[in-house]
Amino acid sequence: MSALYPLRFETIFKEKIWGGQKIRSVLGKDFSPLNNCGETWELSAVSGDVSIVANGELKGRALDGLVNEYGADLLGKHVFEAYGSEFPLLIKFLDANDDLSVQVHPDDELAGQRHGSKGKTEMWYIIQADEGATLITGFNQPMDKEKYRSHVSDNTVMDILNREPVGEGDVFFIPAGRIHTIGRGILLAEIQQTSDVTYRIYDFDRKDANGNSRELHNDQAVDAIDYKTYDTYRTEYTEKQDSSNTLVDSKYFVTNKLFLNKTITRDYSGLDSFVIYICTEGKANIKYPMGEQSVQKGDVYLIPASIDEILIEPETKVKMLEVWV
User: CA 152 to CA 168: how far, in whole Å?
Assistant: First the structure.
């Protein structure tokens, strides 16, 4: 087997009715021949959309094949024992040129019963937001299933949802069951469980190019929703320069933020997991025992669990998300 190294993958571009141009204009990714790009899938093991290595000796190899071949050396021993040959995370960039549909995702138990799938817990990191941009997460008032059903039937569901103003660097954790949508004018990085199960609740009465409305899943959604109202839906964090700042620490993934002006060493010898770097600003070199890779805004790298230490050498001010299981 070839020695493992930091892996970058070919971007999978997705045209969406709500997509725009920021994938190209902000992240520098050319999505021709698509007219608009709503999502890019940067690291995926979802069937039909499996990521392909874009760099180095393993170029052209599929992620699922690498997991099967390298196992714990790629994933980490405890991750491989927990997930087997299934890569557990899906990494995306999303450009909302218009409001996304209001939706909810089932948890592992419900998704397993209905779809033979994992549930979908996710988080958002705002890379760029237009002035006045907002998103929706959770409810703005006490809620229960019957009250919710009443608002759905009256077409007033938007009246009961919590709307948040957003700016660069904001973080929102979206556990399975939390109703949510991304508003227009927002470019973000999304980290989520490997799942593509979504229940669409409301789509602003939009029609596609053929004049058809998109399917809604309200009967399925009512049993998936967490009806509890929370004091806050925004993830607060401190940002200390040239160190790792924890954003989210969940059972499915840990996400930290690196804000670097100088070279730092990251020691992963005690981690027993792969690490993902998502570059949201600037440019740097990632140095490891066998070589180095260049990373810039919009790049996503998978660091195999067999690599114990990484040196990150910024060429400019750099912001990166650091993710592991």
Answer: 32
